[in-house]
Amino acid sequence: MVAVWLMNDDHWAYDRLWRAGVGAFQMRGENDMKRAGVVLRVASQHTVAETMERLESILRARGVAVFARIDFSGDAQRAGLAMRPEQLLIFGNPKGGTPLMVAEPAAGLDLPFKVLAWEDAEGRTWLAYNTPEYIIARHGLDPAFAKNLAALIPLIEQVAG
Predict the structure, then answer these.
(1) What is the rounded CA–CA span in Å between residue 117 and residue 70?
(2) What's the whole-model pTM score?
């Protein structure tokens, strides 16, 4: 299951995505959604912890550097607050991300790549990430740079199943 939300009501951002050729306004099906410049949400069949363990394991096996894993709900609990399970994994490959940041240093706001996993009110686990096309459009980068990030997407989708 793939669900898509445009996470920004800023018309400037929509216009920039449109001018960059990102088909956010022409989505006809799941494949179009996967190419669109949006935050993508993918349902996982595993708990938040299991999903992130699976993702971290697959990434490390493929030689992708895992820089950090943030347990938001664990931090909330230590602060005396209640929160459903939610974790963020930050990972990437310097060979893929560095050229983007050399071309546009502000791309470092979105790199290394990030995946968020959380449990919703019905107990379902979701993954969310910015599509490579969104990152490219957001920073006005050459669309050819999307291939630098594209190899990560099948790995993310693999862990959800």
Answers:
(1) 10
(2) 0.78
